[in-house]
Design brief:
With 368 residues, the chain is α+β, with helices and mostly antiparallel strands. The chain has two domains: 164 residues, 3-Layer(aba) Sandwich (Rossmann fold), CATH 3.40.50.300; 110 residues, Nucleic acid-binding proteins (OB fold (Dihydrolipoamide Acetyltransferase, E2P), Beta Barrel), CATH 2.40.50.140. The strands form four sheets. A six-stranded mixed β-sheet has the order 6-7-8-3-9-10, sandwiched between helices. It has a five-stranded antiparallel β-sheet with strand order 13-12-11-14-20, with no helix packed on it. A five-stranded antiparallel β-sheet has the order 15-19-16-17-18, with no helix packed on it. The longest helix is centred in the middle third of the chain and has 18 residues. The radius of gyration is 24 Å and the shape is elongated. The structure holds adenosine-5'-triphosphate (ATP) and magnesium ion.
């Protein structure tokens, strides 16, 4: 599996995506950086596929921005290497790395018009004026702001300012676009609109993007590949579906969504035992004490007398929360309370006895 755990030394393992799409566009090889007393980034290795969105996901302080800054050349590496198309770039200054960055704070020049902001990088590169004008027009059209070309940043909404920042970063046609929590200053609805916009831009332009966020839903919704980080290390790399369904650790499982956990033991390959029950489940390489992970939407509430395949737990409905698109129940079981997502409009009565069923392929065993 293309994963490393927080305990193991990080190794440069090509991801499944990279193997499918040829050589990685960018490679981070054993990057380390100490800031103050702390190893902010600790032997981080990651292959970034061409023309896809790779997201660094993790809680505050886990080293996402530091990794991005190392990539951009805004920080010098303590050790490790970075390649772009197979060529080492760690010795190059930021302006020679063919990467541009979009920040959380839009960082537009307040005294320049929108058009001049978008054209800033082109001027720095001494692009001929007529060519720059055409490029600025093209970029503003791409982000839907042609009408705002002559305005100043303070005349725009936050979402519009971030669109200008995107247009500015893309105007110079970078090899790689780096985005550090670009949506964090926007309200919830606008965040969703603009993240869809970023996905659309990525599809239209085919750009390689590295996106940083601490929001798991945002990461899931936009990424081809997610690297989950913790304490300056990468805990797991993979497509969103794999990270969600087959996390390598409880840390990753909890960071990317709600989950139920049952403590037990792998007593033989393919057999997980807890209490006086033993169930068949893919145990992979896990042996000994282990944890069974079950996502709420993988559970089905059934009548008490049924005996389905996979896991079946006797329980009682003790709580219901209506969420509009679904109802979330708490089922009291001998293994503790389990959270279950159900159809919003199926009538159920609190206090009823039920069987909580989980299909074998939705059970996932984690090491303790
Ligand atoms: N200039 C600095 N000097 C000292 N320590 C720093 C500096 N910049 C970051 N750090 C520390 O390095 C660690 C990683 O910081 P980093 O900014 O990369 O985290 P992050 O994952 O981007 O967090 P956030 O989600 O809050 O932006 C943190 O513990 C942080 O306090
Ligand atoms: Mg950060």
């Amino acid at each position: 599996m293309n994963t490393t755990t927080a305990q193991e030394p990080a190794v440069a393992s090509p991801s499944a995506l990279t193997q499918a799409g040829g050589a990685p566009h960018v490679r981070l090889i054993e990057l380390s950086k100490t800031l103050g007393p702390l190893k902010a980034v600790d032997r981080v290795s990651l292959d970034i596929p061409r023309g896809q969105i790779t997201t660094l996901l993790g809680p505050s302080g886990c080293g996402k921005s530091t990794t991005l800054r190392l990539l951009a050349g805004l920080y010098q590496l303590d050790s490790g290497d970075i390649t772009l198309d197979g060529q080492g770039i760690a010795h190059l200054p930021p302006n020679k790395r063919q990467m541009t960055m979009v920040f959380q704070e839009y960082a537009l020049f307040p005294h320049l018009t929108v058009a001049d902001n978008v054209g800033y990088g082109l001027r720095m590169r001494r692009t001929p004026a007529s060519q720059a004008r055409a490029r600025i027009g093209e970029m503003l059209e791409l982000v839907g702001l042609s009408a705002a070309a002559g305005k100043h940043p303070h005349q725009l909404s936050g979402g519009q300012q971030q669109r200008v920042a995107l247009a500015r970063a893309l105007a110079v046609d970078p090899e790689v676009l780096l985005l550090d929590e670009p949506l964090s200053n926007l309200d919830a609805k606008l965040r969703i609109r603009l993240r869809e916009e970023i996905v659309r831009l990525q599809q239209v332009l085919g750009k390689t993007m590295v996106f940083v966020t601490h929001d798991q839903e945002e990461a899931m919704s936009i990424s081809h590949q997610i690297a989950v980080m913790s304490g300056g290390r990468i805990s797991q790399v993979g497509p969103p579906e794999e990270i969600y369904a087959r996390p390598v650790s409880r840390y990753v499982a909890e960071f990317v969504g709600l989950a139920n956990f049952i403590e037990g033991e792998v007593v033989a390959p393919g057999c997980f035992r807890f209490g006086d029950l033993a169930i068949p489940v893919q145990t992979g390489t896990v042996t000994g004490k282990a944890t069974l992970m079950i996502r709420p939407e993988a559970c089905t509430i059934m009548a008490p007398a049924v005996h389905p395949d996979g896991l079946a737990l006797r329980g009682r409905l003790i709580q219901r929360t209506f969420l509009g698109n679904m109802a979330r129940y708490t089922v009291d079981t001998p293994q503790g309370p389990m959270v279950v997502d159900d159809d919003a409009f199926t009538r159920r009565t609190l206090g009823d006895d039920v069987t909580l069923a989980v299909a074998p392929d939705r059970l996932h065993v984690l090491p303790v």
